[in-house]
Amino acid sequence: MTDKGLWSYKEIAAHIRVQPDTVRSYRKHGLLPPPDHVENGKPYWYADTVRTWVANRPGNRGSR
Q1: Least C-beta-crowded within 10 Å: which of 32, 36, 38, 41?
Q2: Which domains does the chain have, with CATH numbers?
Q3: Which residues have C-beta within 8 Å of that of residue 50, sequence separation ≥ 6?
């Protein structure tokens, strides 16, 4: 099953239980995958992209 919903910093932050500014910092430091879509200069990621990133990122503590 694939989820093609687009997530902003806010949704990603809620998913990994951090503040949106933390997710922005991850992107700034190259720790977040490139956005799947950019609209009006705002980046968005597919939920599946985020879930794959969370499962494979260093320091993953088995969350979701």
Answers
A1: 41
A2: 4-54 (1.10.1660.10)
A3: 7, 11, 12, 15
